[in-house]
Specification:
With about 240 residues, the protein is an alpha+beta fold. The chain is built from 7 helices and 8 strands.
């Protein structure tokens, strides 16, 4: 039986899923969170199907990028193949988060970039790309999304579906998924009252501060809250 610590990739993935659920990014039983395996670049730890707020470290599995099981109790679903494809295409990517959260799903129908209607949206300046199901490939097709993301974009909005965030850390991917949900809501609701976007110069200034301060502080704060709200998550820790 695997011994879990707070630094164990499986625990971190489970914690990220709990945080996403608590911050309004629950995606019913769909959506996945993964991290590249620290001990080998050609493997990943990935979450199962299920409600985000029920995820435990023991539910998370380790697979190769060919989806061969290395650790865990269930076989990887073909639905997580695009995670593996993104890791293979982007050596810089260490975490992938895929959500169908409410406002992201609503806004994905627009097929346009999320606008700068809130401070959170600064994180998506020069970060967004779009992907649409062609009816032939899988609904989230890894090679096509990797091509759209290119070498440095981090947010792929899948039309009428949801979003995929790729990042250099699990913390960054998780917080950006939360910020994307709030930004999509701000965009939709601001347009109902003919709201105006923030100036790009202000967005650029804010982005630097958000990346330096907001992302780590948001992760730390939401993680602290898990200690109070989700004792079953921490019950699987060794000792």
């Amino acid at each position: 039986m695997t011994t879990f610590t707070e630094d164990h990739p499986a625990f971190r993935v489970a914690a990220a899923r709990r945080i996403l659920a608590r911050e309004g990014c629950e995606s019913r039983v769909a959506g996945h969170v993964s991290v590249r395996a620290p001990d080998r670049a050609d493997a990943m730890w990935v979450s199962p199907f299920g409600y985000f707020d029920e995820t435990l470290p023991s539910h998370v599995i380790k697979t190769t990028l060919d989806l061969d099981l290395l650790e865990g109790d269930w076989e990887a679903s073909p639905a997580v193949q695009f995670h593996a494809d993104l890791y293979a295409a982007r050596p810089d990517v260490q975490s992938v988060v895929h959500t169908h959260s409410h406002w992201v799903e609503v806004y994905s129908c627009a097929a346009t970039d999320v606008g700068y209607y809130s401070a959170d949206s600064c994180l998506f300046h020069d970060e967004q790309v779009h992907y649409a199901d062609d009816g032939i490939s899988p609904p989230v097709h890894g090679p096509a999304m990797a091509a759209a993301l290119g070498a440095d974009r981090t947010v792929c909005i899948a039309a009428n579906h949801g979003a995929v965030i790729v990042e250099t850390t699990l913390e960054r991917a998780t917080v950006k998924a939360i910020a994307l949900e709030t930004s999509c809501r701000a965009h939709v609701e601001a347009q109902l009252i003919s709201g105006k976007e923030m100036p790009v110069a202000e967005i650029v200034r804010l982005k630097s501060a958000y990346e330096q301060y907001f992302i780590p502080m948001m992760w730390d704060a939401t993680y602290r809250r898990l200690r109070r709200s989700d004792p079953d998550l921490f019950a699987e820790l060794d000792g």
